[in-house]
Amino acid sequence: MSLPDRGALALLNLLLCVRHLPQVLRFRRKVGYFPSIAHPRRYHEKMLWRKLLDHNPVFQVFCDKLATKDYVRAVCPSLQVPGTLWVADSVAGCLAHPMPPGTLLKCSHGWRMNHRVRDGQKDVAHLIAMLSGWMTHAHGRKDHQWGYWAVPRKLFLEEAVDHDGIDKLLDISIRCVDGNAFLGSVSAMINTENMRIGYFDRDGQRMGSGGFAGTGKELPADFELPQAFFEAVRHAESLSRGVDYARYDFLYNGETLFAGEITVYPAAGLNRSSDGVLENMVNDLWDIRRSWFLRAEQRGWRSWYAQMLQKALADDASRPSSPQQTAA
User: Largest Cα–Cα distance in the chain?
Assistant: First the structure.
């Protein structure tokens, strides 16, 4: 890549940093350094670049909990999906529907918007306040998670995944790059103080601690990986074809594997594990040349920029000690 091209890319990076100054400053506070947006080489920079520039239309599907169910059914028809009992466009419409105990009340356009319906008379005032908060919350705006912005705001009731005790329910997550799984995690006792997690490669071999070494949060060394893990790997690879990087979540109740969410902005791209090993692993395999932005036709300055970035990434890949391999 020529010196003038590098200079032009550096100038564009400066303009992008000024244009998105609140995001750059938030990145600096959370991650610890100022990012290169125009030429991302490290994991967190790639996540920021994705949020600001790589507006893959399928991200809007993955950020929509209801649309994700349809996507899973179309791509992996044999994979079980938790049933949707009803969908409502408003709080009033939601309250008009039955809410059997044990079901899950959810919102389509964000995360941490889940409520398990309990036995007994519900506190209607509290429920209205909670649901109104969900429906008015513009999820993803603060951290510029573009995929959430256009998701229709709907409330829906979902069947819970049956299990014989919380110790029998496993959360399985598979990280993939364009049809290839490379890292999985299994969590037990989820959403409790006793939660335990372990990391495995696609063949089920135990990997690093993910920053949990010495915390008492790791799965025991003799944990027996269920066959459902390999089933999840197979489905995740099918779901991930054509997507440069994402995390695919599943629930396993000891008998059946169920599809969960598809996450394109894990922790809004701002979380750091204590040892950085996981971020390094993702970064080494996440090639943004497979991204929608660099595979789709762009117009105007984005077309010029896509060409410049392709050149810069090709130069990085040709070097034995590529910056793309540096710590995240």
Answer: 70
